[in-house]
Task: structure prediction
Amino acid sequence: MRLDKWLWAARFFKTRKLACEAINGGKVHLHGQRTKPGREVKPGSLLRIHKGALEWNIEVVVIPKQRRPASEAKTFYVEEAESVSRREAVIEQQRLLRAAAPSRPTGRPGKRDRRLIHRFKNKHAES
Result:
């Protein structure tokens, strides 16, 4: 099976086009080397996949005939324990950063917000 098709079937990427772009961009390595989207993937192939800050080190176990649900797609590969722990640490770190970041108001100000803004401006204009 083609590498881009396998990545799509294993649900690492939403479309084959995104999988092709990642492969051509050097985000996917087969046996430690950059590769092309049409390269054959077989059981036992070793893949390293970068997606944003996340990284997977996996071994291909199953070559599916078609795209399956995510619960089944997890059985298509085996991930190294070290890779899982690193990825979970990155996810936890990102979660903590999001929680610590101040939240911004979304959208336009409502009626109450506009009244508060006008009061604030008028108060400082009179001074």
